Amino acid sequence: MTVTEFLKTAVPFLSGLGEEQAHELAVAAQQLSFTKGQTVLFKGVTVDGLHIVATGKVGVYAKPDKSRPAVRVAELGPGEVFGETSIMEMGTAGAAVKAAEDGTLIFVIPQDAFRGILERAPEFRARTEALIAARKKPSAGAR
């Protein structure tokens, strides 16, 4: 399966993108491999792009308060995304993300490519905003 096919068929967040848009994101995507326990994204850093789990799993870790250690609040597997909130809101990562398995492969779509699709596809922008709103609800947990 090509990266374009993966983005179109295995990433629900990107469903509805046209072939040309999916290809544009696939061409721009970096492929990064991680081992179990390796940090993919540090809390508080500027997020460089939309992260898509291609293979393996990642854990999302947040601190319930400053006096306690970080706890895993979510686990994401193939086809799931993270980093969209930081890009949309021009903020920093609200949680740390670590590989939960050896051989975890992450596609990183640079901010410029992601923002370009958001600007040209209003329905995709609306879906992105809805995902962010859902993740901010207390019961959804931090991602």
What's the arrangement of secondary structure elements?
Elements: H1 3-9, H2 19-28, E1 30-34, E2 39-41, E3 49-55, E4 58-62, E5 71-76, E6 81-82, H3 84-88, E7 96-99, E8 104-110, H4 111-120, H5 122-136
Antiparallel strand pairs: 1-8, 2-7, 3-6, 3-8, 4-5, 4-7
Key features of this structure:
alpha+beta, 143 residues, globular, 8 strands, Jelly Rolls, 5 helices
Write a compact overview of the structure shown.
By secondary structure, the protein is an alpha+beta fold.
Question: What does this molecule look like?
Answer:
There is one protein chain. With 143 residues, the protein is of the alpha+beta class. It has a single domain (3-136), classed as Jelly Rolls, CATH 2.60.120. Helices cover 33% and strands 27% of the residues. The chain has helices at residues 3-9, 19-28, 84-88, 111-120, 122-136, and strands spanning 30-34, 39-41, 49-55, 58-62, 71-76, 81-82, 96-99, 104-110. The strands form two sheets. The chain has a four-stranded antiparallel beta sheet with strand order 1-8-3-6. The protein has a four-stranded antiparallel beta sheet with strand order 2-7-4-5, with no helix packed on it. Helix 1 crosses helix 2 (19-28) and helix 4 crosses helix 5 (122-136). The longest helix is centred in the last third of the chain and has 15 residues, at 122-136. It is globular, with a radius of gyration of 15 Å. The two termini are 27 Å apart. The model has no long low-confidence stretch (mean pLDDT 90).
